[in-house]
Amino acid sequence: MDHNSYMRRCLDLARVAGDRGDTPIGAIVVFDGRIVAEASEELPTGQSVTGHAEVLAVQRAVDLLGSTDLSGSMLYTTAEP
């Protein structure tokens, strides 16, 4: 996959969030050339104030990889800083 493919996946996830009434934001974490975690925004409909897609994707990557050290990973998101 390439940057364009990763961003297309983020846009798909953003559409999912928007369709359920959340802010249309999607995020993925890529490690070693593969998507290891992804999330859609869960605000305002979610149960957590930390329901930002980027936060959720990073937490899922940490859980999957078993480490808080995500060196070498790349975060892609539809949100601008």
Write down the domain tally: 1
Assigned CATH superfamily: Cytidine Deaminase, domain 2
Total of helices: 2
What separation lies between the terminal Cα atoms? Answer: 24 Å
Task: Identify the overall geometry.
Answer: flat
- What is the chains' assembly state? single chain
Question: How are the strands of the biggest sheet laid out side by side?
Answer: 2-1-3
In helices, the fraction of residues equals 25-40%
CATH topology: Cytidine Deaminase, domain 2
Helices and strands: which structural class?
Answer: alpha+beta
Largest sheet: 3 strands, antiparallel
The chain-level mean pLDDT equals 94
Low-confidence segments:
none
| Fraction of residues in β-strands | 15-25%
Q: What's the level 1 CATH class? A: Alpha Beta
Radius of gyration: 12 Å
The CATH architecture: 3-Layer(aba) Sandwich
Element pattern in H and E: HEEHE
Describe the protein in words.
- This protein has 81 residues and is an alpha+beta fold.
- The chain has a single domain (3-77), classed as 3-Layer(aba) Sandwich (Cytidine Deaminase, domain 2).
- It is 37% helix and 22% strand.
- The chain contains two helices and three strands, in the order H-E-E-H-E.
- The chain has a three-stranded antiparallel β-sheet.
- Strand 1 (26-31) and strand 2 (34-40) form a beta hairpin.
- This is Guanine deaminase.
- It comes from Tautonia plasticadhaerens.
- Residues 1-81 form the CMP/dCMP-type deaminase domain.
- One of its GO terms (molecular function) is tRNA-specific adenosine-34 deaminase activity.
- Its EC number is 3.5.4.3.
